[in-house]
Batch of 3 targets.
Target 1
Amino acid sequence: MTVNSIAEYIDQYDGEVQQRLLTVYELIRSAAPHTAVESISWRMPTFKLDTEPLFFFTAAKRHISFYPTAEVIAHFDSDLDGYGTTEHAIQFPHNAPLPIELIRQIIDWRLQQLPSGNS
């Protein structure tokens, strides 16, 4: 199924997974600059500022993947113990509560790294 918006992406899931996606979306949306653009890129919900990707997120069978950039993952390395990570993604397992405060801190730190005038 091809989706054309973040809302369509989230709506294709049910129950807890849908709620987890919605929570991540709302955390990003509430913190992102008003000029950030929402889209689907690489089949994932995406927030961009001008042409720079800010965040991607997606649902997988066992987790929510959150892509805040490799620099952010490196910066928060010690806070990510217990979560699966790759160079570009953090995996929040469905069988554990979403770490909302950690996600909020990651979003805020990422936005603080933007050039002046973009945050």
Target 2
Amino acid sequence: MAFMGPATSVAFNTNPAAAGAGFALPLSIVLALVACLLLANTIAQFARKLPTSGFAYTFNTHGFGHSGGFLSGWLLLLSYGMLAPMLLSAIGTYSSGFLHDQFNINIPWQAMALIFGAIVWGINASGVSESAKTALIFLVIEVGVILGLVGTILGHGGAEGLSFGPFNPANSLHGIGGLGTGMLWGILMFIGFESVATLGEEAKSPKRTIPIALFTAVIVIGIFYVLSAYGAAIGFGQSHAEAFAADTNPWGTLATKFWGASWALVLTVLASQFANFVSGTNAVVRVIFSMGREGILPKILGRTSKRQIPHIALGAYMIFGLVFVFVLGAFLDPLVIYGFCGTILGLGMIIIYILMSLSVIRFYLREHPSEFRIGRHAVLPIITAILMLLPVYGQVSPVPPFPNNLVPYIVIIWMLAGTAYLIYLKRKGKDLIEAMGRVFEDTPETVAPSSATE
């Protein structure tokens, strides 16, 4: 839940989502919720059989073979890799702006990004349990404040009274494409729930707890997102739908209108960004660690400390995030960097979601044919893949502004580079290819006899 960054998602994604869906923003979020629930089913079916830190990389290796698994992991690397620079740019500029507005203290956003980056690095170096507890505290704070503002808006009847207008597709500013744009940013709000699957090797009873965590995260935060979207739309009113779509800080406007101040919201967003950064880094680092351990990335990234922390992968990722955001910051506004990195993350993850939905069909047919169920392992995954095509369409129609319009081309170039690297690995040695997708399927039926024999 913390990796989803609820308050960050609501604060930053409402504007670009509303720019497409307008007053029908809540409907787009409902569509995103349905798609992610269907996706949770796909991930759960994999997690029950493959508890691993490799996530989509390992899942699609078992579904599509070594080449398909590698390319999925390669795209996952790009998508998750954007998390650190995205959040560093956001938390840096928000904290810098808060200090200036409230205390007249001027600290460059780059310096604040460096400070928060160092703090998150230290927390994650202490272990997953400690970082999860930290993220949980901030998660409770951020959700509580946003719900308080939504409750105030609905209690006042919004701007023009309560209605079901926000769930009417006819109220989308740009028709089906507008709903697709809203859904794209809605799915971006959910991105992170699947990261629980990356902790499959560290969780207790992962085949039971991972699926429970998946569905709980999607349902609880999904309801929160729908309520927030409805509160925002109602807070502006249907007759002000264009103003809602054009407002670059809609929640600041709502907080000022209904609470008379926005500083509490800014602090909440900062708490959300921090929790998002802490828990998100855990997931990213464990994917990098898994690929390093299997020799796809440099093997040094697959090393752990005496406390079993993937410290080399953590350090490499944090340094990459800081350098990346500072280089882009020399040319772009930090909030533009946030939108740019977020779009890469969102589009890349949607493609991965589609691939995983198709992969689970082949996985059960090939490796667990006796457990294959046409509804759970075929119909639902196909519906998921089809539904995920809507936000892909929303990314190209209408064409987004610079630099977000470059994102599809960046993804294509990245995948071409990954294909070339895959060909290189195949020529270098068969052992590296066979190492892909190695997981620990430690079912009780197989572990006990093995241990007894030894």
Target 3
Amino acid sequence: MFKRILTLIVVLITAMLNTGIAHAEASVDLSKVNWIEGPKTVDVGTDLAKLDLPSEYMFANGKDTKEIMKKMDNTVSGAEQGIVFPKDDNENWYVLFEFDDIGYVEDKDANKIDADKILSQIKEGTEKDNKERRKSGKPVLDIIGWDEKPHYDANTHNLTWSVLCNSEGTQIVNYNVRILGRGGVTEVTLVADKDEMDKVKPNLETIISKYSYKEGKKYTDYIKGDKVAEVGGLAALIAGGTGVAKIGIFAKILLMLKKAWMLIIVGIGAFFKGIMSIFKRKRKTTNEINNNSEDTTYGENTTVDAINENTSTVSDSLRDDN
């Protein structure tokens, strides 16, 4: 009897592992990502900044962000400080935080930014990156032009621009914000499809409004003698830190895999719940057999029917979730 039950358990587990869901989970193990759900205040970086994460979003720290970016076939800069995703799986975008400790960036050239010249530099830099992506079999990125030309807010010390790109026939936008600080620059990149950008921008505005450097790290905390960046001003920040390699279509892939992982957890939970139900029913059936002195063959058949019924229930659950 036990061997028959064990055989059916093994068959069911094998069937689950052969599904597309299990394959997705095996490719991207997100169980090790320490997701922090809002509302909660989280640290971004090490003694750098904080983010008052709203309830609609979830956050992963810098270490987990590096792994996530690798799984999305994106270039890992080593400067990743955190990443924000919407909780709603129907929304396909993410916000990446990186920090470059280059020092205090002077904003004297705010009114002298040459957008056309910078765009040419971005295209050159992206093509160099594409050469490496081709070698490793990764999708390349083509720069179409500005989605939003660079502009600087002298009150918030935020530099903003966005580049319209194409990857494998999909138009995407890398929307960039640079938050100037005393010791460097926080690089914020919003990645989303072109069609979704207008709807998603308010989310970025909300997230940035909740982000702040810790005391002593703000742009206005600068004192004479602090390290000054050698990049040459705001224009150099745009040309040298475009973030255009962070291809947006992989945000969708990750979100689908994230959902798939959750389905696996739900499916396994339903599976073991079904198994427990089997043994409870078997125990009840055995007791009835003993009390009524009936033939044990009836108990075996009843147990097998229970296993088949629960197997069907778990399979139907997984199909429905997909």
